Amino acid sequence: MQRSRTFRIGALGVLAYLTFVLGTLEAQTPAQGARGRVLNGTTQKPVPNVEVQYVKMMQGMTPVAKATTDREGRFQFQEIPGGSAAPALLRVEYQGATYSHPMMPGQSQPGGIEIQVFEAGSDPKLITVKEHAILLHPNGETLVVLEQIILENRSSPPRTYVNPQGTYPFTLPKSASQGVKVTVQGPEGMPINQTPVSREKANSYAVTYPIRPGETQFRVEYSLDYQPPFEFSKPIDLPAEQMHLITPGKEVELKGESLEAIPPDPSTGFVGYRVTSVGKAVRVQVSGQAPVQSGAQSAAESEEGGGSLTPIPPPIHQQRWLVLAVAGLVMLGGFVYLYTR
């Protein structure tokens, strides 16, 4: 059976998330407090004596109230300083990982709120790189590179992968310039900026973000000095089950071994290549320039002008992929969607 996967990249994801929450609040009545329990998803037992923080997202993610679970893992906030009619979340730190639950004032919680945490594990085999997509966007003398990686924690019983040395290692091409930007989007769905830690090997980094059960998305952005034809060579630290290379149009050509071209998407002109064999590195020759009037550039102009991007759902009975990117401006923000079926 074929499966579909959606890559979603949002440099403005936090703003979009808060906008959604604020829109939801308009039709709701403020709550006076919150109660619930903390449950260990690994052992299926309550978690006693852990701190639960009430965080208001519009106040710098600073806790405004705290509670401690009892022997049954239960907690309660009688009153929330400044009221509870604002975007908020409940946050729990457990064995080196942070777990959150969004708060929707006025939402009915008959049995209280359940916050699930997991036992920590340090075995790298807890995670699998499910998909890895690399967008190559030549723009003048610069090659903008945006990588989207989906990690999946399939552990059973479920555990959170925690490793102070790094949960996701990666290596940049030797000619990478102007640093690297990393964003992580966990199961809660809100993008979080991460500061990668340098490793001993040159151009090698690691992110220490805990990988919870389920899917976690990583976005890695950087740029290279570009002069076509350009030899793009990137080491692969963790091979993926599926890997794709993407260009913003047929004007940008890729040549290399183990590449299987996918027909251009008619709505954007984006071209995809399936990497049929992933070794210790991906090497391709890049030539050409991104089209000046690409669908992605129009999306960028819409974004700058206050417009919004609407995800296009993949067809149910047709194998296809779709990428929407901000042409030449992906380092500044925007969205990338990739559907693989």
Spatial order of the strands in the main sheet? Answer: 16-15-19-12-11-21-24-23
The count of helical stretches stands at 2
CATH architecture of the largest domain: Sandwich
Multimer state: single chain
Total individual domains: 2
Query: How many beta-strand runs?
Result: 27
The pLDDT mean sits at 78
In N-to-C order, the SSE pattern is EHEEEEEEEEEEEEEEEEEEEEEEEEHEE
Helix coverage percent of residues?
Answer: under 10%
Defining traits:
single chain; 341 residues; mainly beta; Immunoglobulin-like; eight-stranded mixed β-sheet; four-stranded mixed β-sheet; 27 strands; 45% strand; disordered N terminus
Question: How is the secondary structure organized here?
Answer:
Blueprint: E1 5-10, H1 13-25, E2 34-40, E3 45-46, E4 51-56, E5 62-68, E6 74-77, E7 88-94, E8 97-103, E9 113-117, E10 120-121, E11 127-139, E12 142-153, E13 160-161, E14 168-171, E15 176-185, E16 191-194, E17 197-198, E18 204-207, E19 214-225, E20 230-235, E21 242-247, E22 253-255, E23 259-262, E24 271-275, E25 281-287, H2 295-304, E26 323-324, E27 335-340
Parallel strand pairs: 2-9, 10-13, 11-21
Antiparallel strand pairs: 1-27, 2-3, 2-6, 4-5, 4-7, 7-8, 11-12, 12-19, 14-18, 15-16, 15-19, 17-18, 20-25, 21-24, 22-25, 23-24, 26-27
